[in-house]
Design a protein that fits this description.
By secondary structure, this protein is mainly α. It contains 36 helices and 3 strands. The N and C termini lie far apart (108 Å).
Length: 839
């Protein structure tokens, strides 16, 4: 039984006919074809494998829908920008994979074909499996945590997705559908980014750098780099055809409008005129796109296609500018240079394209040179976005986090050069090679902020080679493959170059991984035989019910083992953090339940329990019994974590810090002395340990303990004396030890006194007859931060201690002059001062 699909071309359009139920062998089909003189082409294929086609279409549908995960931000999950997307991605990939196994078993045409890219990816996965097996923390290497949701489990899912996508999407048209699908999502995100830009929605990082609800401006920058090249690729591939781009714009625009209407229906969402304007524009553009899609006017469609592509492209370029992500923008520029240079050098037939490549290349170079010429002007320096690009220099990189952690990564690689530290192992490198100059940075780094260095640390030279081979294999296949036109090849070269360049400055996330692997699958899939040339092959096996049921059962088992416990733990953590009607006892019960799952979020559950425990201890309405219960439960969990991850500085520090806040100084010292061996230069550990020694010395009148604490602070100060944080910590220890003269000497070297404004400190300074110094510190603090009310109130208290009523009141009046919103509080304090002096 065969199906005959024939096409004929009239003056106006291409007609298609399907004649089913023709029983014949291949020769009969040829004879039948000869009788259809009016038809241009006929293709025949077996139609008895209907289930195969259904399964294939389901898999395709999942692949086409996967880009939608970029829109998923479940606010009721722990790390909502990461976990919701990751869980849906994993489940979708698992379901499509087991369906694919059934299809590949029945139909050999869909089995993975050997090519350089597939082999390289296999090598990469195998190497990382071995590296993770011998990692410092194998559990985390395989499963990661909720903050990242990566590890080997995500790498395997990406590899499986690559195999399925490259094996199922064999036709260029299939990949165009996927590209139009992700373009629709990108158009939605672009519109939402404009909403953020116009203050109609919050920017998650809290500044001017839009993030498109991806959680990080750098993530949005990388996302848009991909889609700018995707748009250009579709534009040159589709030409003046409006169907795909019209549908993408309509779906993205109307989808955004529906979302915005849902958004403003919630009372907590602010209604803004800018939001209405953006939604209105989205509706108009979407309706115009649909009109273009169904219009019969060829001339109109030719114009419409260019307008829609140009509109989407322009919007993405504007938003990538406002992400102020230097790596992404520089990567985009570099990718365009590579693509245009390739066209100029390799295009032989079309001189217009060849010249166009040269024009684009020279134009970009001129723009770069022009910007370098004006980068020091006031216009550039006063612009929050342009100034970030103008500040790019080698000297600046040395003072940023990357200037410290990149050398750390290289030192870590030299210690484990073959297989590295395993995935999620950079924190061990960071803690071991921590340098005191990083005190101004965030305290815990788990990434090198360079994807290439991350894989070098995680997998050693073998893992790094596996990662690099993905790029090399893709470049080789593109260079040799005649399926792509020179323009398409140029853009794919440019995209891979842009992505690799921006990866030098940021670590990957699930969305960028998905887009990168999709490009690899596109390149690999196009390198294979065409799926439509199999009419003369032997009939393939059908996917029977037993085979299909086996796939469903396997999927269910993997779903439970890989996802269910992790998801349940994630939800339990959120519930445990949320006030419960039953009281805090229920919160503790939920924390214990979350920890009992023993899944990838156990460490984070324990850390959140510690934070909640601090709140319970500070709560005035919490009973002593409840406080004791929370303390015992927290200590028990933190001790277990310390034992489970004995080489992880963070778990050791968390326990020591908790003991310190409970006043259990001996326990603190016992834990943090060992922790300090893991990271000798880490000030956070040193400060806490020193404070425990000094407090223990005061408690027991033990001069040796106090001296031990001071020595730790002095050593920390000598490691990096240029930083206010270590000066203030050292001065605080000296002050508590009664060494006021030395305290004042150190405090005079502090650049910004606002870091140590504290009534207790200034009371001791006044008692020690360092009045002028105390007032001088406070006046300097006010000069540096005139809107810090703490400096004014502390200065007022100093004058009260000096029995100077007028100056005490005047200090508060100065506060009122710069912060009128504090009128009620200031008047109340002035009244209290006047009553005090009446006694």
């Amino acid at each position: 039984m065969y199906a005959i699909v024939c096409t004929c071309e009239s003056r106006s359009k291409l007609h298609s006919y399907r004649i089913s139920n023709i029983s014949a062998n291949h020769d009969d089909i040829i004879f039948f074809n000869q009788r259809l003189l009016s038809l241009r082409k006929c293709k025949a294929f077996p139609i008895s494998n209907g289930m195969n086609q259904v399964v294939k279409n389901i898999i395709k549908g999942i692949i086409f829908a996967l880009p939608v995960i970029a829109l998923i931000v479940p606010k009721d999950m722990f790390f909502p920008f990461i976990t919701g997307r990751a869980f849906i991605f994993r489940v979708a990939v698992e379901f499509s994979f087991f369906l694919y196994l059934a299809l590949a078993f029945a139909d050999t045409r869909y089995r993975p074909k050997r090519n350089m890219l597939t082999i390289s990816f296999c090598f990469f996965v195998v190497v990382m499996f071995i590296a993770d097996l011998f990692a410092v923390n194998p559990f985390k290497a395989f499963w990661s945590n909720f903050e990242r949701m990566e590890g080997f489990v995500t790498l395997v899912h990406l590899f499986v997705y690559f195999i399925v996508a490259s094996s199922i999407l064999k036709e260029k048209r299939d990949w165009h559908i996927w590209l139009f699908s992700t373009t629709a999502v990108a158009f939605f995100i672009t519109l939402f980014s404009f909403l953020q830009l116009m203050r109609g929605a919050a920017i998650n990082q809290g500044d001017v750098r839009v993030d498109g609800d991806l959680g990080n401006a750098a993530y949005l920058g990388a996302y848009l780099v991909f889609h700018i090249f995707f748009i250009l690729y579709l534009w040159i591939s589709e030409g003046n055809r409006t169907k795909g781009i019209s549908e993408s714009v309509a779906v993205g625009g109307l989808g955004y409008t529906i979302y915005y209407l849902w958004r403003i229906s919630h009372p907590e969402t602010a209604f803004t005129p800018a939001g209405v304007w953006i939604a209105s524009v989205a509706v108009v553009i979407s309706l115009l796109a649909l009109w273009f899609r169904f219009s019969n006017k060829t001339s109109l469609k030719n114009i419409a296609a260019g307008c829609l592509y140009g509109l989407v492209l322009a919007g993405q370029v504007v938003i990538i500018y406002f992400t102020a992500t230097r790596g992404a923008v520089l990567g985009l520029i570099g990718g365009i240079l590579i693509a245009s240079l390739y066209l100029f050098l390799k295009e032989k037939e079309n001189l217009k394209i060849k010249k166009g490549g040269l024009v684009v290349f020279l134009s970009v170079v001129v723009i770069i040179v022009g910007f370098m010429a004006v980068k020091n002007t006031s216009f550039v320096q006063n612009n929050p976005v342009l100034s970030r690009f103008a500040s790019i220099s080698w000297s600046e990189s040395k003072t940023q986090a990357r200037g410290y952690i990149w050398p750390m990564a290289l030192r870590g690689f030299m210690e484990h050069p073959i297989l590295g530290w395993g995935q999620e192992g950079f924190n061990y490198v960071f803690q071991k090679h921590y340098v005191p100059e990083m005190i101004t940075q965030e305290p815990w780094f788990d990434r090198a902020h360079n994807s290439f260095l991350d894989w070098l640390v995680a997998g050693g030279i073998l893992g790094f080679l596996g990662y690099i081979l993905l790029y090399i294999s893709a470049f080789v296949i593109l260079w040799k493959n005649s399926v792509f036109s020179q323009k398409e090849r140029a853009l794919l070269f440019g995209l891979l170059a842009a992505y690799s360049f921006q990866s030098l400055f940021i670590f990957d996330n699930l969305i960028s991984y998905l887009l990168f692997v999709s490009v690899l699958a596109l390149v690999s899939g196009e390198a294979k035989e065409s799926a439509v040339s199999d009419a003369n092959k032997e009939r393939e096996k059908h996917i029977g019910v037993p085979l299909l049921m086996t796939s469903v059962v396997l999927f269910t088992i993997v779903l439970f083992l890989v996802n269910w416990k992790a998801y349940a733990q994630n939800i339990a953590i959120i519930k445990a953090e949320t006030p419960q009607p039953e009281g805090v006892e229920k919160n503790l019960e939920l924390f214990q339940k979350a920890i009992s799952y023993g899944s990838l979020g156990t460490v984070e559950a324990r850390e959140q329990l510690e934070q909640i425990s601090f709140l319970i201890l500070a709560a005035p309405n919490a009973t002593d019994e409840m406080k004791v219960t929370f303390v015992r439960a927290t200590i028990d969990q933190l001790e277990k974590q310390k034992e489970q991850t004995p080489y992880d500085l963070r778990s050791q520090f968390n326990l020591g810090y908790y003991y310190r806040n409970l006043g259990l100084y001996e326990n603190t010292i016992k834990v943090l002395e060992k922790a300090r061996l893991l990271s000798p230069k880490k000030q956070q550990v040193a400060f806490t340990l020193a404070s425990a020694y000094i407090a223990l010395g005061q408690e027991r009148n033990d001069a040796a303990a106090m001296e031990k604490g001071l020595n730790i602070l002095k050593e920390t100060y000598n490691d990096a004396p240029q930083f206010d944080q270590v000066k203030i910590a050292y001065a605080g220890g000296l002050l508590v030890s009664g060494k006021i003269n030395e305290t004042v000497t150190i405090l005079k070297m502090v650049n910004n006194p606002n870091g140590f404004i504290n009534n207790d400190i200034f009371q001791k300074l006044v008692e020690g007859n360092y009045t002028d110094d105390a007032i001088g510190f406070l006046e300097k603090a006010i000069q540096i931060e005139p809107l810090n009310p703490n400096s004014y109130t502390t200065l007022s208290n100093v004058y009260v201690a000096l029995k100077n009523k007028d100056m005490a009141v005047k200090s508060l009046e100065r506060l009122l002059a710069v912060m009128p919103s504090m009128k009620e509080k200031v008047n109340s304090d002035i009244k209290a001062i006047e009553e005090y002096f009446k006694r």
